[in-house]
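Problem statement: downstream parser choked on a complex file, so we are re-checking the raw output for the protoporphyrin IX containing FE run. The parser issue turned out to be on our end (a line-ending mismatch), but while we're here, posting the original submission so the record is complete.
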Amino acid sequence: MTTASVAREINLTDLARDPYPIYRHLRDTAPVAWVPAADRYLVTRYDDVMAVERDQQVFSSVEQDSLMIRAIGPLALLRQDGEAHQRLRKAAETPVKPRAVKTEWLPRFRQNTEALISAFVDHGEADLVADFAAPLAATNLGTLLGLPDATAADILQWSQAIIDACGNYADAPAVWARNDRAVQAVDAAITEVLPYVREHPDSSVISAMLQAGLNPDEIRTNVKIFIGGGVNEPRDVLAVAACALLSHPDQLTDVLGGTTPWKAVFEEAVRWVSPIGMYPRQVTEDVELGGVALHAGDRLGVVIASANRDERIFDRPDEFDTRREVKPHLAFGGGPHFCLGTWVARASIGEVGLPALFDRLPGLTLTDADAVRLHGWVFRGPLSVPVTWRA
Ligand code: HEM
């Protein structure tokens, strides 16, 4: 057992621009390293990430001085362990399980998708992020949560404000102020629907939480987890997958010809560029991880984006390859907090959004492949994806 290496050379600007060469270096030389710029130990190998995920008692989701708790309150299910977490999680589970997704939501996701594409199909050009992926993710989320009066623009704004506050390590007052406004607006929207849903239960997440006996504060806080966690990731996986297919015409031909299923495209896209790259854990007792001694109170960054490119597990991990041998990736996490929106994302993007895009926009082409820039390491995705097609 050794003390961890200190990776002073790593800075947040480089990580946000392109974290993958940095992760490869860390996996090879210091798989559990103290990274001062991130103010935590980064865990970058697949097996070590799995070891963290398997032991919630030692690697806790309850982080001291958590920005997420400051942003949305102490009742957030993502910052709970054990029974307290399970109770909140179970309350939201039924509407996002595969059966409900198939029967309740898939038809609604199709309607939302068709309506959005119809609005710009005649234009012949669009930005896939701003014009399609972002409003689609937000509209689908509003449908699922049961917030009929919230527009896609509202949900996008709330989501970004909450995410920025959860990552507000610089303690910027403007970020807290924007978060406070978003929190007030979400609370008002929920407070407005609760009396009606109490009288008229439906299939939505808010209704499920109410029926499970969560109190209004618990509902308000955890709807914000859905809003913070349910927009950027489906948006980014759609944009990454579309870009990757358009830059790999041979793979696109196989997909359109039915040789490669859309499911494989979705799973490879989330492995290749994981929309959530890193999430936090805190060590509760002295322990060894990857040969390194950690102590109670140490803060970890669980870098699933790196685990998903670990060459010890995946062949040619930096290549986008929809035909690769299927192995379990960690894009949705791997433990008790495994993403509750997994089946929603698979259906709304993998089964509906992506196929509809290629079906309805003939001759879809990247306007300038070299101009597509990906950004971020905690969350990562393309900032914009300009495309053209035959209108
Ligand atoms: C491709 C899309 C998505 C990816 C890659 C993704 C990824 C993740 C990951 C990695 C976690 C675990 C975080 C942690 O352990 O700290 C998580 C948790 C969560 N996700 Fe997702 N997510 C996606 C879409 C969604 C959607 C669409 C929703 C909402 C409908 C959602 C709701 C949640 C919730 C509520 C949790 C917390 C679960 C818990 O604490 O038990 N996610 N997600």
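For whoever reads this later: The first strand starts at residue 32 and ends at 35.
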